[in-house]
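We append the chain.
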Amino acid sequence: MTLFAIIQSTGSAVRGPLSCSLDEIAAFDAFLDELARLHDAGPMQNPLPGRLEVEFKRGADVQCTAALLAEDAVAVICHRMRPFILQEERTHYYRVAGVLRRCVDHAEFRSFLGEQHARWRGQVLAEEFPIVVDEELVTCEKTLLDWLNSHEYHRDTAKAARLESLHNAVPAAMMGWTLQQL
């Protein structure tokens, strides 16, 4: 079997043999189907808000305002993201990325996967806009997963308590914006 793909950021074509099992190909195909479902979701049809304003005044508390998605839009996106986030799913992001890394022997494609992996983990956001509370990085994948598991997927009270302690230190608008960016 042969893989052909275009890396959009560079316009480079990736062409070469693809050495994976039929199960791995089926998982990748299911991943692409779920990606199309996410892309077609109503909230994804418009640009996602991404504005955060932080105002500092001498002698006053820091003021933060953020443009955030409506709660229903967040729920739709979280639901459509489940196949990529839940570790037991065959379409779990790390599982499919690992298959592609193993199956595609192409340096530029692997470099592209590395860049996407850094974005998925929140590493890019953490480097561009680090928020740290008591030496704990807030702008990271763990914060997003804790929020999903405490508010959207499982109602995990321990993770909710951890997030509540962060909410006490980080203005709500900034925390909402951070979660939305992750």
